[in-house]
Amino acid sequence: MLNEYVTYLQEKGASRNTIISYTNDLNIFFHDLHIRPDDYVTPADIRKWIQQMLNPVEGKPLAISTINRRLNSLRSFYAWAVEHHKLEQNPMKDIQDLKSADEDNEKIMWLTEEEFEDLLQRMRKKPVQSRGVDPEEKYRRDRAVVYLLTYAGLRVEELSNLKLTDLDLEMKRIRIVGKGMKVRTVPISNILLAELEDWLKFRAEMAKKKPHVAESPYVFYSQRSPKFSVRGIQRMIESYSLPNKKLTPHMFRHTFCKWMLKVSRPIIFSPKSPV
């Protein structure tokens, strides 16, 4: 079957180097999975193979470009096999190329001031999907999270672990316990100070109604937990993404760094939306 595919490539006019590259990639795949070209293969098999290339037992991980080249070879082979009735199903149908961190950062590295204001408006208007969730409470918490990520440059783990005792509003500073248990102090801008004061005042009201909030030492909590988990923050941020702009907590850290470079003029936003 592989010989038939090579013949097809030759008749199609593929170059010698292309044919060699495709054949080598396919042989590596068949060898790694201990299968023959006409054996039944599932998307799960291919995803497992991708993970093996990304996290090999021995040696270094393959470059993203190399993995994508191999996937392209498989994509061409299985498309031919299904089209010529050699196989019934194409296991590559839903397998996408991998994206490198650089590619993702290039697309979502930071928000412009206009995009930030648009995000705040979407947060206010976005309907709550889960039953029993107070829309006002969710909006205020999510807004405070976004402001802290953007104006203090916190990592998502740092924000999740942030305690009430880490905030010193009088001295306008935040105590952060970062990677490797290294402690640093981050100044609180006037814009961030106003947001934190609003959130803490609202949080205090919630503490009178919810025992898990009253008992929580953390700045942010979830619907049922005294601590807003890393994954919970990630899901919350992602829920406000646009079709052409995926949001992640780390991009707000990039936004913080980007805006800090704008020393020629202050960053000023319009007044806060009404609550």
UniProtKB/TrEMBL annotation:
Top-rank lineage group of the source organism: Bacteria
The UniProt keywords, alphabetically, are: DNA integration, DNA recombination, DNA-binding
Locate the Tyr recombinase domain: which residues? 106-275
In this chain the Core-binding (CB) domain maps to 1-82
Q: Is DNA-binding given among the entry's keywords?
A: yes
Fetch the InterPro entries from UniProt. CB, DNA_brk_join_enz, Integrase-like_cat_sf, Integrase_catalytic, Integrase_recombinase_N, Integrase_SAM-like_N, Tyrosine_recombinase_XerCD
Query: What family is reported?
Result: Belongs to the 'phage' integrase family.
PANTHER family (alphabetical): INTEGRASE_RECOMBINASE PROTEIN MJ0367-RELATED, PHAGE INTEGRASE-RELATED
What name appears for this protein in its UniProt entry?
Tyrosine-type recombinase/integrase
**Native source species:** Geobacillus jurassicus
